[in-house]
Each structure stands twice: as C-alpha cells, then as structure tokens.
UniProtKB/TrEMBL annotation:
UniProtKB keywords: Coiled coil
Lineage summary: Bacteria, Pseudomonadati, Bacteroidota, Cytophagia, Cytophagales
UniProt xrefs under Pfam families: AAA_11, AAA_12, DUF4011
Coiled coil spans: 876-903
UniProt name for this protein: AAA domain-containing protein
NAD in keyword set: no
Source organism of the structure: Flectobacillus roseus
Domain DNA2/NAM7 helicase helicase span(s) in chain numbering: 313-421, 877-1025
Domain DNA2/NAM7 helicase-like C-terminal stretches: 1058-1236
C-alpha cells in the first residue's frame, strides 16, 4: 500500500533537493565543466604572479583582483583561460538575470573524504563571493611585460561576507547525525585577519572547537596552491575512509548555488512537524499547507468598496481578485501577456492597504522586477522589500529600512495634511455608485437572457417578433404558453387551421355541420343514424314552430322556443294556481292597477288586520260618520262614572244616556263601566280599521268597488273571515304574477287581455306543444349543437336534404377534424375562438399566434423588468458612462488611499516611554545602520518582524531566499511569543507564487507554508522547470500523485481550483498571438490591438528564407550572419525599438552572441536612453522576457552533404511544444523568422510528440502572414442560432457591417479600411464575465486603443430606432 502521509511526501521532496545528494557540485566536484568552473591554479603566473596571490588578495578583501588578459596573441594559455572565464562570466550573468542570484564564488580550501555513512565529499570549505568583470588597463611602456589587448579579466569582490559551504555543513550534519547550530552555519569571518597566514591560523582554531572533524594538514600553511585533479566517484570511494575528511590547498572559481541549501532546514522542520499529521498532505480538494481557518470558505459577495485596485484590471483579473478576497487559495493560469503582473500588483495593493502582509515569490528575477516596477508606478517602492540575493541585497535593503524609519515623521505630516476622511468618503461613494450601477446593469442582463419565464429570452423575442403586425390581445392567455413547450400546441393548431379552411366555403351543408358537436369514436355505419336523427329533429322543430306561432299569433325565434321549453314547469304552476275566475280577476285587477306590492308586504298588512280584530273585534252598528262623536260621548260617560256621585248624576240627568244605551244594547253589552270600556275599544278598532281601509282598500279587487267609500263599508258585518278570504285571493294573484313575470311567455302574451277560460286554454295548448317537442329536443341534444338546432328552425325542406347529403359525403373528413378538435382543452379553444374572431386564420395562423404571443410576453417581461426599456432610451447609455467614470475615478482614489494607508501603518503602533521618547524602531534603526557585526536579514526579521513588516509589508524574493530570510515556525504560535529557537514566527497573509511552471514543486512548498493563503500563478502551456546548473534527484519508484508532477504549478493544479486570465496585452497586432491562441489556448485569449496598427498594411511577421544555410556543429553560421545584418538595419532604422533574439538550441545562441559582441560596439549593445538591451536566448530560457522585436533563428538546415536530419533537440521531447509557445509569444510589435528550411521540408507527420509538428505549422503560419494572407477570424458564436443574434440581422441591413474581428460583434469597414466596431447584446455580451467587462472594461480599452464604437441593442431593432 502506498504511503500518502505528509511526512512521506515531504521526505521525498527533501530527497529531491540536490543539497544533500552527491550530485551537487557544492558537495562532490569531480571535474570542472568549462561553462561553470576553472581551477585558479591554472592562472599561475598568467599575470606575472603565483596563483596563491589570488587567495591572499581575496583574504585581504581587495576589491578588484587582476587575473589575465582577455586576449593575448602571443600566449595560447592566456587565450584558453580567457575563453573559459568568458563562459563562466556568461553563466554567472545568465543566472543573475534569470534568478537574481549571484552564485559565483572562489572555493578554498577543498575538503575531500567520506562522511560517516560513506557519502563521498570533495568540495570547498569556504566560499569567497566574487564576480567576473572586464576592465581596460593602461598599457605599460614595457612591451615585454604587456603583450595583451589592454582589457583584463578581474575578480570583483562582492559585498557579502566569506561563508562556510553551507551545503557541506548540512550534509555533514545530516549524514554524521551531528547538530550544527545556526550561528555556526551563518558564521561570516568578519573578525578574521586580512593576512593569509593569520586567516588560516584562525580558521584552524575555529575548526578545532567546531562540531566538524576535519584534518587541517600542514600543506595549507604553504603559500602555494595545488592543481585540482580530475577524479571519479569510484576512485574516491575506494581511496577514502568513512568519517575521514582532509583539507587541501586547492581553489576553484565557479558557480556554486548556495541559496537552495536554505530549503533543507525548512524540510527538516516540516518533517518533524508532520509526524503528528495523520490526514495526509492534502485535505479534500484543498492543500494541507493552507491555514486551517481557511479550510471552509463561505461564499461571500465582495462589495466594491472592499476592492482596492490602483492599476487597471479586466474582468478575468477582477474575478480572481474577488475569489482571493473571500479567502480562497487558487491556481491562476496566466498565458503570455495576460497581465499576471498587473493582477499580482493589485492583490499586493489591496492586501497591504488593509494592513496585511504579502509575499511574492518567483525563481525568475525578471518576473519579480516587473512586479516591482509596477508597484513603483503606484508609489509602493519604499514599502516593498525586493531581495533577489539575500546576501548581496542586504545593504540596499537595510538602507531602505533606515530610510523608512527616518521618513515616519514625514509620512505622518503628509497624511495629516491630506483630508483623509474626504478621500475615504469619496472612495466609498464611488464604490457604492459602482455597486448600484452594476446592480442595475446586472438586472438588465439577467432580464435580457432569462428563459425561466417563457422558455426563451426576451432578447430572442425582440429579434423574432413584429410589433406592427396584425394584433390580437393575448393578455389573458400568454401565461399558458411557454415557448419551450409550444411545439405540441402549434402542431395541433396548424392541423386545426387546415381543416378549418376546408369548412369555410358557403353552403348550407358546410355551415350546418361546421356547427356540429364533435363526432366521438364514430364510424361510417353511424351516418344512417345521424341522418334519421336529423330528419326527426327537423320535423319536430318545424311542427313546434308552426303550433306556437299559431297559438301566439306572432313570429317566434329559436331563442323563444328554448326559453319556453325551459319554463314548462312554470306555465304548469300558473295553471295550478288559477283555479277560479275570482283568482284570475284578482290577477287582472293587480296588473291593471299596476300594483307592485310583494307577498311579504301583503303578509304584513294581513297581520295588521288580525291585530285590529284582536279580542274585542269592531263595533258594527254605527255608521262611519257617527263613530267619532259617539266615542266622544262615551268617554264623557266613563269620566262621569269614574266616581259615585258623578255616576249617579250622569245616570239621573244625562241627555246622552239613551243614545249610549241603544248602542250598548245593540252590541250585547250592559251599562257597567267595564262594558262601556269594551265598547270604547270596539269603536276605536272600528275607527282604526276604516283608516286602514282608506289607505290600502284599493289593493283589493271586490265586485262593488263603490261600497268602499259609503257610510257602510262592504266588509262591515262580514267580520274577519271576509278579510281572510280576500287576502288569500290577492296572495294567489301576487304569486301568479311573480311567476308570470319571470316567464319568457309574458314577453309574448299580454295576459290582461284574456278572460279566465282563454288563458287556461292557451297555457294548456302551449304546454302540450312544448311537451311534444321537448322529447325530441332532449334526444337530439347529445348529437346536435344548439347552433344546429337553431338552424333547423330557419331552413327549408330542400336545404335539409342538402345537409343530409353533405353528411354522407364528408363524414370521414369531419371525423378527422373532430379528433384534432378534441385534443384542445377548453382554454385552448377559448384562445382559438379569440384568434378566429379577431383575425383571419386562413393566411398565417401560426405566425399570427406566435408573434402576438411574443408581444404579450415582451409586455409582461418589461413590466417585470422596466430596465429593459432603457435599451432604446438614454438609460443604459447614461449608466455605461457613469460606470466608466466611476471606475476610473475609483482607480485613482485607490492609488491615493493605498499610499495613505501604507504611510499610516508605519506610525500607527508607535510607543513612547515615560519620558515621551519614541521606543518603536529604536533597535531596528540601530541594527540597520551599524557598520560592523551586522545582523543577517533572517535574524533581523526574526527578532524585529513586527516593526519590519510595518515598514515593509510586501516582499519579493526567490523560493530559496524566502527560506533563507523568513524563519519557518508553527502556525499556532502567537506573533508576540518566541519559539524554542528564539525566533518570532513570520506569517504572511498572502503568498503569491509567480512563474510557478518553472519552479520545481519541492522548491515552492516551503514558501507557501509561510502564508495563510496562496495564489499560484503560471502557465501550464509554457516551460516546465529546468535545473539551470543544478542537478536534482529523481526517484522513479515514487507512485504518489503529488510526486508525479515536476512543476509547482502542476502540483497546485491537483489540489486547488484553477482560474485563467483572458485578456492579452503584449502583442500589438492579432497575428502575433493568434497562432498561440489557436493551438495552445483554444481561442480563449482576448486581444484588442491598436486601431492604428489594424490599418497598417505591413505584416507583423516577416518570414525570411535563407537559401544557403548549413547545419554544422549544431550551428548555422549563414543564419547568424543574416541576423547580424538585420540587427544592424533595425538599430539604424528603428533605434527606439528593443530587440530580442531567440534560437532553438544553445550552440546557435552562443554563436550569435559571440558574433554580436564582435561586430557591435560596446555602447551599441544597449538601446538609447538606457532602454532594454538586446538579448540572445534559446527557447529553454526565454520565458518571462519580451521585446518590441523578436528575431527567430530556426537554425536547422541540411548539413554540408545536403542531408537534413529531423532532430529538433528539446522540441522533440514531451512538452517540447510548450517551448515553441514561449518563443512565439515574446514580441510586442514584430517578429522576424529566419529559417534555412521551408515548412515542406519538415516530414513530421509520424513524430511522436507535438513539438516538431507545431514548428512546421508555425513556419507555414509565419510565411502566410508575411505574404499578407492572414485575416483575423471573428468570434465564433456557439450554441446560438442565427435568428438569436442581432449582428446577423444588422450585417444583412448594413453593407459596411462585417463579421471579422474577434473582440467585437461587427466591424465597420469601408474600402478595406477599418472604421470602427459595433457592440451588441449578442453572445460576446452574454459570455462576458460581468457587466463591468461589457460596459466599462471593454469600452475603456477600446478608447485607449483608439477604436470608435457604437452599441446597439436588440430592443432598438425591435422598436425600429436603429439608424
């Protein structure tokens, strides 16, 4: 089972480091390769002095030590040594340019022997830092002593101190299992004597008390060097004994990379810390080196005010910044020229402005230099620590720190002079304005492309609908129909319309059967049944109409018949109510008098009569006129009888007694007081009843209405039963009238004009006729529609025959039509009915329906998203202008706030003592300003990290430098505490790794363990790591995924999410990047060339065929001569343009480099005004470089015999195509391809790898571009049909609108000259990462590049407002 533990993987990475392997030249130097080493004893007396004098001068710290002439025509030895020094010097400079490291040392003395485990060692003990230079020296008058050119090689002493060979000490510690402490590892020999003998003596004394057991023999005290003999590892293993080490007076000048040795302690620390780790190197999907608190990232929307970007950005860069801001660690794929450095600088600015620390790591010095230069442009240079070589850069760094300390008061004064509150308020206001505008534009874009509402986007509706076509209001139906679910309905509707057209001719048969009920599951055998049914129904209809019209003596309609059928029960109930003539008379009287009293009101009147009659009833003997006088007399009698005397007097003497007594007797009462009171009540009831009769008596029908006003009312003497009988009669009249009024017959017959018998007979006859028809009607209803039944009332017998014949002839057709009809729901039929009513379905029914459906959906969507209407008004234009203005303003404010915050942090935490003296920075200032016993950078940061990071929050360094100067400690220690080594832990908030594809995984890991969050930037389509004179140990047996990749970028890709930069900014024209974009990046790069360059007729690639090139000793001298001539012409004609030369192998590079040095004057090697120098590199080391003009020397050619070998060096290797990709993307403005072979000569179809095939393709491409045959390809619209694209319609309408350039929807072109571009709301807009890209970044970039542009929206075309 494979061990995936963190410890296992870290040990494997540690093993890969050459510092502890025998392949490391700093440990085992068996011979001296010409390009890297030379034995100093070979310089013995080349300059009239013994070679040991060179060591003496080094010990004496002499600044410049003369070695020999660069050229001596009379001394072959001098020339040979000079050539070797030249190669070493080139290697030294190359490494410094590539890595920023200065790795040239004189190694002395040499240690030889074996470590305790048998590891063979032969290496320097001490390193004297030097650099090789050429200096002109005044010639002596003595020609016998000065025979050279006057230019001599010198060793220049570097600022860094003499040190132990750290690789040797670490190997000694590791293999001998002896602890060597940092103070010994970092011993600097500053206190040693400058005389060679005393120096050696002090070294001897130091070794005696050191943990090293090395034999310091007497030969070292002789002032003479020995030759460094060539040896083999086998010889040493046989000759040397385990554990025995000896020193020899040998000295070697050469390349001894030392920075990598600082990685080893980091791995020792990490391995020790990983012993408790049981989860493996990586968590699920995320690297273990990420800080634990970042293991779970919650999605968060980053407000604009949280983004501080003082440099211009594009959408892909902003997208990445936002992901980093929420705490994610990422891999950023950055193809050539896509703004990795811009992205990194914006991340640095954002984090440092918020008080965080950032570490930018890269093995490429050029990459760090570019970052530094960008940061300098935004005023950060004093807050950035750039350390390429931690020993040689210490002086400059300490000067920078000292300057920062001395500037604190000035920083504070500067900040106080600014209105910082206003500055930050302005920044917040612009940020909020951007957020608000973006929110509105986002809502527009969302609404424009949203398909969730109706199945398609409103954009498509705009482009496929006609607002001025015939209109049908579908506002009640549109929501039932989504366009992605419409096909079934449209298919059925289309068929329906076809059948409808067949039935539209004028004939009684068609008209009748068009109104039919649908035939359900019928066959042709059912036709007979239908014909019989029709005949029977027709006859019954004709009969009932004749009978009714005869009875009613008027013409009736089918509606009348239907109403009469429905009210048969009502007519029957009327007959049942009118059982007597008196009832009918009451009804007639009511209708004649037009009484409107309802039954309820009549019941209330009856209750009043019942109350009047009550217990006592009424008095019936008196006339109506005598009632009130008599009542008066009666009341007086009762008053008199109220006392005994009064009653006696009234009885004896009253004249009214007899009158009262007569009435009393007539009513069957006595003269007692009680009976008199009863008589009083009866009279009062009689008076009340007569008043009631006066008011309501007219409602009653009586035979003698004249009695109503006589002295003796008609009801007098008949009692309550008379009223009861008449109320019943009137109630029947009301009941009958109410039923009658509700009947349709009441509209046809005036009942008051009939007598009782006539009405009875009429009702019975009508009922009989209706009953006869109703049976047929009920039977026919399931088969015939109401419309058909209505037609039967109006057709003739001859027409009935036509109807029967039509059924017989077209029955099958009607069956099919009914099957279609049956498939529609009631809502669908309502819609179809509306369409039939509002428009003619014969012409284009589908188009009519779909167009109006689109218009209805457009209206609904625009009501939901009013912002859509802004496309055809000024709304969107104003938002776009405001957004661009705010973004530019915010960018400027970001720069000012960045500088303010950086200055502020330097004095924010200043402390004072009780005497008010500042104590912060006191120790730091002392350490960086002293002249002796200067602390190393590592110790300074370990002891004073807080203060250092307040002054310099951003650091740029190589991976080795990071390990050398930033102590690695456990993450769980507090910043203010110290660990067991006495060091403060250093933790960066963000570690950014640039050009990670060129860094081995094991070299990158220690750096990111120093960060809470990581961004790994590189390009997997560019160069993989190269050793660059360092040999790395590979264990082929490792089968762990994390160990199967070489580059740090590929390692990150295994475990971190990836994002890609898209905008390309290096190449000024499309043809320079198009090849790479097509073959390596799947056309994902977005280049916006300058407008002025697009109309330039000259091609950006010139293909130059060299006809006489010969491949000899891996060189092509003819091509080199052509290149020399071309360089001279370019420097004469375009002196302001920088030049780079790229070869396909190392030998051709060296040959051209020598040729240029021979023929160009020293001052000509640099462009004017100190611009970029000409470089000559091969495809292995040109990554990261760029120039205005790039010259390719393909080199490959037939040999002198005419034989051409298909051997393309590293291009033949796996991944060789990446080298080609790097090479062809270095030019900003122009490429010259110098080749001795034509593409047709390359027979590479059977090549194993892609490199040779792509070389052939590139040569074909370059020749085609050079011949003017290149044409840019427009953006390819994928997954969109043409009708969806506005540009398709515009290009058809406007001749000058063409699809040609990839960065715009349409190009405006006239007379083969570009005039501008057109932007639409098509796929480029849809695919944009954000609305800021569409409305700000792209328009601003177009303006910067000189392009005029016009923006059109689909709604404008729909509204016909596009000019």
């Amino acid at each position: 089972m494979i061990d995936y533990s963190l410890q296992t993987i870290l040990k494997a990475y540690a093993k890969r480091l050459t510092n502890l392997s025998a392949k490391n030249k700093s440990l085992l130097l068996l011979n001296l390769p010409n390009e890297q080493f030379i034995d100093l004893h070979e310089l013995d007396f080349l300059h009239n002095q013994p070679s040991f004098m060179l060591i003496e001068q080094l010990i004496a710290q002499k600044n410049a030590i003369s070695l020999c002439d660069t050229l001596d025509p009379r001394n072959v030895k001098v020339n040979e040594v000079s050539k070797r020094l030249k190669k070493i010097s080139r290697t030294e400079k190359f490494i410094e340019e590539e890595r920023g490291a200065k790795d040239l040392y004189v190694g002395y003395p040499m240690v030889k022997g074996k470590l305790m485990d048998g590891t063979v060692v032969r290496c320097p003990l001490l390193f004297f830092p030097v650099t090789l230079t050429q200096k002109a020296q005044r010639l002596s008058l003595n020609s016998s002593t000065d025979t050279g050119s006057g230019i001599k090689w010198h060793l220049q002493r570097r600022e860094e101190p003499v040190t132990f060979n750290r690789s040797f000490l670490l190997a000694y510690s590791h293999f001998n299992e002896i602890k060597i402490f940092d103070n010994f590892l970092e011993y600097t020999f500053e206190d040693f004597s400058k005389t060679s003998l005393e120096f050696r003596t002090q070294l001897y004394e130091l070794l005696k008390v050191s943990p090293l057991n090395v034999n310091f023999n007497q030969e070292l005290f002789t002032n003479q060097l020995q030759y460094f003999e060539k040896s083999t590892k086998a010889d040493l293993e046989q000759m040397e004994k385990n554990g025995e080490l000896k020193l020899y007076p040998q000295a070697v000048l050469g390349i001894f990379p030392q920075a990598g040795s600082f990685l080893v302690p980091d791995y020792d620390f990490l391995i020790e810390e990983s012993q408790n780790n049981i989860t493996g190197l990586f968590r699920e999907g995320e690297a273990q080196w990420l800080h634990p608190s970042l293991s779970m990232i919650q999605p968060t929307k980053i407000r604009e005010e949280k983004l501080l970007t003082p440099l211009a950005i594009d959408a892909s860069q902003e997208e990445i910044i936002r992901e980093v801001k929420i705490g994610k660690s990422l891999v950023v794929q950055g193809p050539p020229g896509t703004g990795k450095s811009q992205l990194i600088c914006n991340l640095v600015a954002d984090f440092t402005a918020r008080g965080k620390s950032v570490l930018v790591v890269s093995q490429k010095r050029a990459a760090l230099d570019v970052v530094y230069e960008r940061l300098r442009q935004i005023g950060m240079e004093q807050f950035v620590g750039s350390v390429h070589d931690f020993k040689n850069d210490r002086k400059a760094l300490y000067s920078q720190i000292l300057h920062q300390v001395e500037q604190i008061d000035a920083y504070k004064k500067h900040n106080y002079s600014l209105d910082s509150i206003f500055l930050e308020r302005s920044f917040d206001q612009e940020s909020r304005r951007i957020d608000k505008i973006v929110e509105e534009l986002d809502s527009f874009k969302t609404a424009l492309f949203d398909t969730s509402l109706c199945g398609v986007s409103v954009k498509e509706l705009y482009l496929t609908s006609q607002p001025d076509a015939p209109y049908v209001d579908l506002s009640n139906f549109y929501q039932d129909y989504r366009f992605d679910q419409l096909d079934d309905f449209l298919t059925r509707f289309q068929k329906y319309c076809q059948y409808t057209r067949l039935f539209r001719h004028d004939s009684i048969g068609k008209n009748f059967w068009n109104k039919r009920k649908r035939f359900n599951s019928l066959t042709f055998s059912d036709v007979k049944h239908w014909q019989e049914l029709f005949s029977k129904t027709f006859k019954a209809t004709q009969t009932v109409f004749q009978e009714l019209e005869s009875l009613l003596e008027s013409k009736i309609q089918y509606d009348d018949l239907q109403n009469l059928i429905q009210e048969r029960d009502e007519l029957k109930s009327i007959s049942a109510i009118l059982t007597s003539n008196s009832y009918f008379d009451a009804l007639k009287y009511r209708k004649q008098q037009k009484h409107s009293l309802r039954a309820l009101e009549f019941s209330q009147l009856f209750e009043q009569i019942k109350a009047i009659f009550g217990v006592e009833g009424i008095e019936i003997t008196l006339d109506s006129s005598a009632l009130k006088p008599f009542l008066h007399k009666l009341i007086e009698a009762l008053d008199a009888k109220s006392n005994a005397i009064g009653g006696m007097v009234w009885s004896l003497f009253s004249k009214q007694k007899k009158d009262i007594q007569d009435v009393v007797v007539a009513n069957g009462l006595t003269m007692s007081a009680d009976d008199l009171r009863r008589l009083q009540m009866r009279i009062q009831n009689r008076i009340q009843l007569e008043e009631w009769w006066t008011e309501f008596g007219h409602l009653f029908w009586v035979k003698s209405q004249g009695n109503i006003s006589s002295e003796r009312p008609i009801w007098l003497g008949k009692g309550f039963r008379w009223f009861e009988r008449h109320f019943e009669m009137m109630h029947k009249a009301i009941q009958t009238d109410m039923v009658w009024q509700e009947t349709h017959l009441s509209l046809l017959v005036d009942i008051s004009s009939f007598d009782y018998e006539s009405v009875k007979n009429l009702l019975e006859d009508i009922h009989a006729s209706l009953e006869g028809y109703a049976e047929t009607h009920v039977y026919s209803q399931p088969y015939l529609s109401e419309s058909q039944l209505e037609m039967l009332a109006n057709i003739k017998a001859s027409e009935a025959s036509d109807i029967i014949a039509y059924l017989d002839e077209h029955f099958d057709l009607m069956l099919e039509a009914d099957e279609i009809h049956r498939s529609f729901s009631s809502r669908e039929m309502d819609l179809i009915s509306l369409l039939e009513k509002e428009a003619n379905l014969e012409d284009s029914p589908i188009e009519l329906f779909t167009n109006n459906l689109k218009l209805a959906w457009i209206e609904a969507i625009e009501q939901r998203y009013p912002i859509l209407r802004g496309a055809s008004t000024l709304k969107l234009q104003q938002l776009e202008e405001d957004l661009q203005k705010s973004i530019e303003q915010k960018q400027q404010l970001s720069k000012e706030i960045l500088q303010l915050k950086l200055r502020e942090k330097t004095y924010q935490s200043i402390e004072v003592n009780r005497l008010q003296n500042v104590t912060t920075y006191r120790d730091l200032k002392h350490q960086v300003s002293k002249k002796r016993k200067i602390w190393s950078i590592r110790k300074l940061i370990a002891e004073l990290s807080d203060e250092v990071f307040n002054l310099i929050p951003c650091w740029l360094a190589s991976p080795e430098t990071v390990s050398a100067i930033f102590p690695l400690t456990t993450h769980n220690l507090a910043i203010s505490e110290k660990n067991s080594t006495g060091y403060h832990p250093v933790m960066f908030d963000l570690v950014i790794f640039d050009e990670a594809s060129q860094c081995y995984a094991e070299q990158g890991i220690p750096s990111i363990f120093r960060g809470k969050q990581t961004v790994i930037a590189g390009d997997s389509k560019q160069l993989q790591p190269s050793d660059l004179y360092r040999i790395r140990f590979d264990d082929e047996d490792e089968d762990i995924p994390a160990l199967e990749v070489d580059s740090f970028l590929d390692l990150g890709c295994q475990f971190l999410p990836q994002m890609q930069l898209r905008g390309h900014y290096r190449s000024r024209s499309l043809d320079l990047i198009d090849f790479s974009n097509q073959h390596f990046y799947q056309n994902s790069l977005q280049l916006l060339p300058r407008f002025e360059d697009m109309n330039d007729s000259d091609s950006s690639i010139e293909y130059i065929q060299v006809s006489e090139g010969i491949w000899n000793n891996h060189c092509n001298a003819v091509e080199a001569d052509v290149i020399l001539t071309l360089v001279k012409e370019l420097r004469a004609n375009t002196p302001d343009k920088s030049i780079g030369i790229v070869t396909f192998n190392y030998r051709q590079q060296v040959y051209i480099q020598d040729l240029l040095e021979q023929h160009l004057h020293a001052q000509e090697k640099l462009t004017k005004n100190g611009q970029e120098p000409i470089f000559v590199k091969n495809i292995e080391n040109v990554q990261g470089d760029e120039r205005d003009i790039i010259i390719f020397s393909v080199g490959y050619a037939p040999d002198a015999t005419g034989r051409f070998t298909m051997n393309f060096g590293t291009l033949n290797m796996s991944g060789g195509e990446n080298r080609l990709n790097v090479a062809v993307t270095r030019a900003r403005e122009r490429v010259y391809v110098i080749t001795s072979i034509a593409p047709e000569q390359l027979k590479v179809d059977d090549a194993t790898h892609e490199g040779p095939k792509l070389l052939k393709h590139y040569l074909e491409y370059a020749r085609r571009v050079s011949e003017g045959l290149y044409s840019p390809q427009p953006h390819i619209s994928k997954n969109y049909w043409a009708e969806w694209l506005l540009k398709e319609q515009l290009s058809k309408k406007v001749v000058s609108f063409v699809k040609e350039l990839p960065f715009a929807d349409l190009t405006v072109k006239s007379s083969q000259q570009y005039q501008g571009v057109v932007l639409t709301d098509d796929d480029l807009f849809y695919d944009a990462r954000s609305v800021k890209e569409s409305f700000a970044y792209l328009p601003l970039e177009l303006q910067r590049k000189g392009w005029s542009f016009t923006r059109y929206y689909s709604r404008q075309l729909w509204k016909k407002v596009i000019p």
